[in-house]
Amino acid sequence: MQRLQGKTILITGATSGLGKAMAHRFAEEGASIAAVGRSRERGERLAEELAVRFPANRARFFPCDLTDADAIAELREEVAASGFAIDILVNNAGVFQTYLLEEITPEAYDHVFRINVGAAIFMTQAFIAELCERHGNILNVASIGGLQSHIAGSRQYLYAPSKAALIEFSQLCAKNYAKSIRVNCLCPGPNDTPIYENKDFSRILPSIPMGRMGQPIDVARAACFLVSEEASYITGAVLTVDGGSSI
Q1: Which residue among 99, 109, 157, 159 is the active-site one?
Q2: Catalytic residue check, 99
C-alpha cells in the first residue's frame, strides 16, 4: 500500500541528511516531491535520483534562501507556476551550530534563529492558505535539544532554544488551525548525517540507551507515518525519534 499516493510534499533542507531520506521515503509511498534547498547541484541530483527510481511520480528542485522572507514568497509563486499543489509541508531545514556563551555574536544568533525558526514560520505563512484549502498537514523537524526535559551540552545556547521555539510554534499552529490542517513535530536525537564530519561516535553512544546512532531512515519512517492518513487524528504531537536519548 502506498500511503502517500497522489500527494505532493514540499520538503525544505531536502538535499542531504534527514531531508533527502524523507524525500526518498515519501516517493516510495507514492508522493510527488518538491525539494527545496540551497545547493542547486545537490538539488538537481536529488530530483534526477527520484525521477529514475520513481518515474511515475514528479520530482522537482526549487532553490531558495530560506533566511530571506521575500525569497520564500517568490518560492511560493514559483511552486504554484510549476503546477505543484502542495498537500504536505515538511519544514526540515536547520543548522546545528554550537557556541560557548562567551562566543555568541548577534550575527550567530540571527543566523541560527532565522534558519531554525524563521524559515518554518515564513514557509508556513506562505503555504498555509493552500494547505488549509486542501486539508493537508505540516511536519516540523525540531530536535530533542528543544525539549524542556532534555537539557544537555555546554554549547547549545542557540541551537536548543531555537528548536524549543519551533516546538512551541508547531503546537500553536496545531491548536489554531485544527479545523483545517494537522501540524506535528518530530524531535530526532543524534543521527549519522553529514553534520558530523568526524564519524567517531564513541562520545555520543553512551547517552543512547539503544546503543546505536540514529540513521536518517529512522526519522523518515516516523515522518511518513505522521504525514499519512494513518495519523489522521494526531495533531500537536511531539514525537521523539532518538533511541531513548531523551529518557
Answers
A1: 159
A2: no
